């Protein structure tokens, strides 16, 4: 099902020319565990409880010992907020992490937040990507807050899980847009419409952003998935391939 005439030359495909899983492109590095946002569908909270990672998920904890993982020469794309929200990080934690990122330009580092109204960040780090999660139209303010409160080189937005039609979106300055739907037991109650996905994709392309449909959209959108990555992430993946040879 080809819904959009995207720029397929920019798509990242695996060796079987199939759509890919985002976790194979971007790995979690959970330097901070815990979050105060309290989303009802939070998988991180369930996993933290199941594996007893910390005592209280609503009280974020920093694990500076994991910073040495950044010293690996083999380049990787890392999500640093898989079990936290950047707005819940203490300033001193963030400063330690940013300093280590600056020492390791071989990697790219992504952050996500649902509370960009609480952020106040200035950085010229070339390998830092700041993003917000938007799940519905009423949360579009987060994109404006991100641009206002985080002065950085790169921005991204994740629409996941997408609960309604976000309508018209201002993607100015946004480099990368990720779209996904609900997975797991709650997926039966949420149906992301292909029209919403197509509308977001067309708007993002028209405003110069690249778009990545997460693998969980395949049953909704068909196999002809749009999975574009920023060049910096693609370069990391190309380098990784050389390490395997
Ligand atoms: S922001 Fe993320 S980590 Fe925090 S509760 Fe929501 S889903 Fe969980």
Q: What does this 3D model show about the protein?
A:
With 245 residues, the chain is an alpha/beta fold. It has one domain. The chain contains seven helices and eleven strands. The strands form three sheets. A seven-stranded parallel beta sheet has the order 1-4-5-7-9-10-11. The longest helix is centred in the last third of the chain and has 14 residues, at 231-244. It is globular and about 45 Å long. Residues 1-12 have low confidence and may be disordered. The structure holds iron/sulfur cluster. Iron/sulfur cluster (SF4) binds at residues 35, 37-39, 42, 44-45, 84-85, 114. Iron/sulfur cluster is lined by residues 35, 37-39, 42, 44-45, 84-85, 114.
List its salient traits.
245 residues; binds iron/sulfur cluster; 7-stranded parallel beta sheet; alpha/beta; disordered N terminus; 11 strands
The largest beta-sheet arranges its strands as: 1-4-5-7-9-10-11
Q: What is the overall shape?
A: globular
Oligomeric organization of the protein chains: single chain
Largest sheet: 7 strands, parallel
The secondary structure category is: alpha/beta
Concise summary:
This protein is of the alpha/beta class and 245 residues long. 27% of the residues lie in helices and 16% in strands.
């Amino acid at each position: 099902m080809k819904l959009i005439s995207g720029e397929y030359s920019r798509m990242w495909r695996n060796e079987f020319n199939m759509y890919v899983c985002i976790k194979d492109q971007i790995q979690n590095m959970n330097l901070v565990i815990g979050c105060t946002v309290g989303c009802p569908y939070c998988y991180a909270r369930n996993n933290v409880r199941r594996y007893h990672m910390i005592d209280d998920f609503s009280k974020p904890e920093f694990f500076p010992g994991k910073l040495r993982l950044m010293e690996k020469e083999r380049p990787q794309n890392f999500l640093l907020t898989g079990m936290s929200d950047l707005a819940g990080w203490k300033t001193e934690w963030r400063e330690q992490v940013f300093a280590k990122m600056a020492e390791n330009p071989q990697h790219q580092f992504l952050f996500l937040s649902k509370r960009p109204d609480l952020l106040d960040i200035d950085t010229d780090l070339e390998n830092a990507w700041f993003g917000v999660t938007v799940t519905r139209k009423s949360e579009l303010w987060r994109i404006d807050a991100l641009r206002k409160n985080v002065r950085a080189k790169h921005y991204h937005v994740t629409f996941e899980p997408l609960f309604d039609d976000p309508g018209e979106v201002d993607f100015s300055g946004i480099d990368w847009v990720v779209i996904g739907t609900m997975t797991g037991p709650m997926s039966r109650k949420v149906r992301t419409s292909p029209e919403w996905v197509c509308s977001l994709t067309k708007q993002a392309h028209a405003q110069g952003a690249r778009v990545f449909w997460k693998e969980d959209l395949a049953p909704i959108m068909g196999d002809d998935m749009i999975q574009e990555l920023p060049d910096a992430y693609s370069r990391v993946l190309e380098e990784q391939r050389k390490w395997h040879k």
